[in-house]
Each structure stands twice: as structure tokens, then as C-alpha cells.
Amino acid sequence: MTRTNLEVVPGRTPRRFCGRKDEEYIADFCLVSRRHLGDFEYRIFKYHFLLGADWRLCTRKLKIDRGTYFHAVYRIQQQLGRVFRELEPYGLYPLSEYFGPSVKKVAPIEPPPPKVCPIRAPLLKTPLYQLHNAA
Questions:
Q1: Is the overall model pTM greater than 0.70, yes or no?
Q2: SS (H, E, C) 62-128
Q3: Which of 43, 108, 109, 130 has the highest CB neighbour count under 10 A?
């Protein structure tokens, strides 16, 4: 079951449109992965990440040893992590930016600090030592 979201594009005249963000993300994820991985790496990616097979099944299906498999998985994670982060015009990571609103956040303007007036003792016409002696 798919979920349709109503989105608003900000601007002078805000526009509304329907979109399927989940499906769009899955399509972007798969297409970008296919575009940036070689044939061997994509086969590992497909079995491990998309189909969810464990390492035993993957090594048996791909006819490779365990060390080669894990080195390839780490290389794929590093390579795709960088690609997903640096993808233009919108990165696939972090997810909050992909699924969140496209409005840029502006830092709030902080008010200037209040002016501090030093507290002074009231001015006395008679010096303190005369008041002390008078009592």
C-alpha cells in the first residue's frame, strides 16, 4: 500500500502537488547505486542490501570467499555513502532533509544584550565617618 503526500512548494505563489516520497526515494536509491557500482559490486549490493541475504548465501551464490565478500561490502558502503551524501541537487542522506520540507531554515536574530548600568551607592552630603561618630 502506498502513501500519497500533499506537498507545498514555497514561492511567490505557493503550489501544491501530490507525491509519493517513499517510492521516489527507493527509485533514487536503486538508480544511483546501479549507476555508481560495477557489475560485481552491484551483484553483491543487490543480494546483500536489497534482497537481505546473509553472507553465507551471498558467498555461495557469487562463488567468492568470505574475506573478499566483506571487503567488497565495506567498499560498497564507503563508496555509496559518499555518493548519497554529495548527490546534487539533493542528497539522499540525511533522510530528514530528503523527506523534510524543502524550505531553508534561517537562523533566528538574537536581540542585542541589555545595557548594564552599574549600581552606585547614593551620594551622601555628609561623609560616612561623621554619621558613624554621631550615633
A1: no
A2: HCCCHHHHHHHHHHHHHHHHHHHHHCCCCCCCCHHHHHCCCCCCCCCCCCCCCCCCCCCCCCCCCCH
A3: 43
Query: What is the model's pLDDT at position 118?
Result: 61
CATH assignment of the domain containing 67: 1.10.10
> CB under 8 Å to 6, separation ≥6 — which residues?
16, 17, 18
Asked if residue 122 is part of any domain, the answer here is no
Instruction: With residue 42 as reference, give the H or E element that holds it.
Output: helix 39-45
For the ranges 30-34, 117-121, 125-129, 130-134, the maximum mean pLDDT occurs at: 30-34
pLDDT-based confidence at residue 10 (cuts at 50, 70, 90): low
Given a cut of 60, whether residue 67 has pLDDT beyond it is: yes
- The tally of domains found in the chain comes to 1
